[in-house]
Amino acid sequence: MNTVVLLALTGLGLAALYFLVASGLSLVFGLADVLNFAHGLFLGVGAYATWWAAGNLPGAGAEGLGFVLAVAFGVAAGTLVAVLVELVLIRPLYSRTIEQVLVTVGLSLAGVALLQATWGADARPFPRPEWTRRVTGILGAQVPNGGLLLIGAAVLVLGGLLAFLHWTRYGLIIRAGVENREMVTALGIDVRKAFTLVFAIGGAAAALAGALGGVYLGTVSPGQGGSLLIFAFIVVVIGGMGSVVGSAYAAVAVGLLQQFVNYYGASGVGDLCVVALLAVVLLLRPQGIAGKVAHA
Amino acid sequence: MSATGEPVLTVADLSVRIAGLHILQGVSFTVAPTGVTVLLGRNGVGKTTTLRAIVGLTPRNGEVRGTVRMGAQTLLARPTHRLVRDGLGYVPEDRCVFAGLTVAENLRLAERRGTTPAYDRVFALFPELDRRGRQRAGSLSGGQQQMLAIGRVLLNDNRLLLVDEPTKGLAPKVVTEVAEVLERVAESVPVLLVEQNLAVVRRLARDAVVLSAGRVAWHGNAHELLLETALTKSLLGVGPEVRA
Q: β-strands A135-138, A141-144: how paired?
């Protein structure tokens, strides 16, 4: 029983990390039709900016409000980079899919190289509050607090995103744009502003994933974003392009499947099962759990 | 042109090429400042392409040439959202309501900043939309979706409405209702209408522009066209006796 609870909660922690990366990725693809391979860079920027701020930014640190300030700095940095990427690199390339892929793949590689050149290729210990290094007893299982922090953050982000999408005008524009972008334009709305906004939201969520992922894993390294991005893409496809709720369901399914199969099967088999799940979903429900139906 | 006054829309030498295919080849016509001008033609002659070119929705792999003016304003090369904000209302073929949004949300989306949305006008024409505000648009019938699509553009004051096949796929009773609404709408704003149903054309249209093979084959009074049985059959492939 203890093991099952521990696996379930660490699986949910992993799911939270996937969700934070995938939710923005899903909105960006759903609204703007941009496959953003540079999304992992936002995570890396968030993680490194938090790490840097904790040691250098006045008022910031590894404990208490200082840590909150460091994370806020990391999230702001990730958001800023995401907005700049959209305005400078993506905007001139809308509807040019091949060029977009090339640019975002190139940017992702260049970003990792830049982080390596600046702070080295080795993983660095991540500054984190003392309480996140401890565990909490839940139903007999000793669950790492860093994982619980990730779960709490993901739930807050999910709630915030849903509130934004349902109760604000820009949320309405984004939901409509995911269905039919052209028709949003034909109602007199400049949909490009919404593109920038979803990049900002995606960048912020990914940067938060970078900061809290650093807390959970205890280290930060230049390639962290890229490896998480692969599973985030799988979550987006399973959940359905453009659906935040679908991403949440898919992240939970993928996180739990990985944890349980890797534990009860063999290490690495869980990852294979996730790919198998992706194949099954693509065969049976190509639009994903809650995605828009593709029109010819 | 049978209506008096300066045309609200002037299309001159409009050519559209999409993926290498010449869809429109030098189309020229005007839209009267009042009433309904109907754009007719067999399937695939470029009626929808004409409306989409006017409102700036030609696909990215398309090329548009020529001149389109609304009053003194040149339309081509301006982004769609600006044209719409300047008073060019567009009701697309197949309604294109946002299926996952409620009726109220579909209408709210059409509100324009700085203007007061005319919900009274919309609900006076379509009381059903008021009653079904919380219903998802995707669960409406075809007729109700068409009403929502028209209601969205009527929420704002427009200088011209482009309406693409509003009666397509609707039951005869609903076709009559939609025609009645368009008739009332056209009393206050000019309409450029694409329509296949000749009974609706006979009821609504004052002027007609007939396209054939990407060119204007006929332009004049709609009723005179429909009186010419042989001409109508040769241009449209159906006789004017065809009813909904």
A: antiparallel
A191 Cβ under 8 Å from any chain B Cβ: yes
DSSP A61: -
Q: From A180, which residue of chain B is nearest by alpha-carbon distance?
A: B98
Which 3 state secondary structure label does DSSP give A219? strand
CA dist B208 → A295, B43, B62, B191 (Å): 33, 16, 26, 12
Class level of CATH domain B9-236: alpha beta
Q: Would an 8 Å CB–CB cutoff place B98 in contact with chain A?
A: yes
Burial class, B72, CB count within 10 angstroms (exposed 0-12 / middle 13-18 / buried 19+): exposed
User: Which positions in chain A touch B60 (Cβ < 8 Å)?
Assistant: 95
**Count of CB contacts below 8 A, A vs B?**
57
Q: Domain extents for chain B?
A: 9-236
CB–CB contact A190 B60 (8 Å) = no
- The pTM score is 0.88
* DSSP codes, A220-243: E-TTHHHHHHHHHHHHHHHH-TT-
How many of the other CB atoms lie within 10 Å of CB of A69? Answer: 18
pLDDT in tens, chain A (296 residues): 789 999 999 999 999 999 999 999 999 988 888 889 999 999 999 999 999 999 999 998 888 899 999 999 999 999 999 999 999 999 988 878 899 999 999 999 999 999 999 999 999 999 999 999 999 999 989 999 999 999 999 999 999 999 999 999 999 999 999 899 999 999 999 999 999 999 999 999 999 999 999 999 999 999 888 888 999 999 999 999 889 999 999 999 999 999 999 999 888 899 999 999 999 999 999 888 886 644 33
Burial class (CB in 10 A: 0-12, 13-18, 19+), B197: buried
Work out the minimum CA distance from B92 to partner chain A, whole angstroms: 8
Least CB-CB distance to A188: which of B85, B98, B105? B85
Q: Does domain A2-284 have CATH number 1.10.1760?
A: no
What CA–CA distance (Å, rounded) separates A184 from A172? 10
ipTM of the assembly?
A: 0.90
Q: How many CA atoms lie within 13 A of B75 on its CB side?
A: 31
The answer, for B99 touching chain A at a CB cutoff of 8 Å, is yes
